[in-house]
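Morning run. Coffee first, then this:
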Amino acid sequence: MSAPATLPRRPKGFMFDLDGTLILSNRALGSYQAIPGAREALEELDRLGIPWLALTNGSAYAAARQAPKLRDVGLPVPDARLFTPNSVAAKVIRKRDYRSVLVLGTQGVTHALSELDVPCCVPGDAEASRADAVYVAWHPDCTMEHIHIACARVLDGAAFLTASDVPFFATKEGRSFGYSCAINGAIARVTGREPEVTGKPSMHAMHFVASRLGIAVSDVGVVGDDPVAEMQMAREAGALAIAVTTGSTSKADWDAQPAERSPGLLIEAIGDLVSATQLR
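And here it is:
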């Protein structure tokens, strides 16, 4: 199925993915490079007065730590325009008034949630055995002991949340697998419970984006490189699905996607975004 050349309407604001769309990092998430045309696209939207933000499925770093790294490689991304699944999860957790959340993630994940007023604990804390929610995020040092305590809490009725359940993301070295997806799989296999995703492609994330942009969901242009994380989310929400070929999905792969994961518009270069969406 080939993507049409135009969208049914012009977006009034944009949500950008990071990995494969605006940047490529290494697998350790330690170094970034901007994708050609990304800086120009963001600057052009600013000149036109069109709101935009970036929402990554990466949960390792808080926005205040990650955004400066983006600016270091030339991308004009203010801290206030960068969000992670932790941003969305915090909103969900506060709304549901969980008393204690067992976090399977790096120190950066726990720090980001704590800054957003989430009551966190980690494996080894006395509170961990009483947590009423489990949150799985980026956790390259996860052990079987961590999985064991998470399974025990979920089997005892704790909510099971995750930053992301997408198996791969784009890096300089090619397609890399997501730790949270692997950890989720282990917990789900033991407990029979699937995680509730707070990042993309969840409707939690989609409505969070629209609210931050101050526009209707149907007017959001969702720009990304992943058929599930971005295109499925946009399609399910009635937003505008815009795909790029600079990440984990080639043009041939996009053309082979089923309707529910296919883009409404396919652009090969992110620098072509404004002209391709007929904003000028």
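The chain is about 35% helix and 20% strand. Good start to the day.
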